[in-house]
Amino acid sequence: MQVTGPPCHRPSRVKVLPGQSIVSFSRVSKLGVMSQEASHSRAIRRWAMILYWITIFLLTHWPEIDRYEPADGWPIPNFSVVMHVVTYGGWVVMWWWLLSVDGRRVTHWACVGLILGGAAYAIFDELSQALVDRHPAVTDFLADMLGVVTAVAICYFWQRSQVYRQIRQEREVSRQLS
Hints:
By secondary structure, the chain is an all-alpha fold. It has four helices and no strands. It has helices at 35-60, 79-99, 108-128, 138-177.
């Protein structure tokens, strides 16, 4: 039996013993089988990303946000820097989650796009804060970029480990069947 599909969704070659039927996809994809579920997942991820981005924008453009700082300071040293790193790291994770819908792998070019997009948004974010009497800061931009680059690296190596794990599992199945 020959199964065809887009190059990224073709089944891998697995020896099948008489009486067995195994189809192992090298990239998990349910496009043809569960396209309705995939579209729901895509819509949920898209709306989650939109809501996250709106939240980031509102929090970074809140006038006089410093008045909410506790009188004795934040319990974490350099709390502002930590928040910038975490917030922009979360922005990357949300994009990664959206881009990897249907089990798709995020490519090297998408990683570059995430870093450039993160830089562009961080610049816009810092410069537009002046419109609401906040002060743009280079240190905030650097913290934003630290969050972006760190999150891209973590997501990339996590995805890579998942791919290698899947390859090892397919080889193990192939060995068991031969």
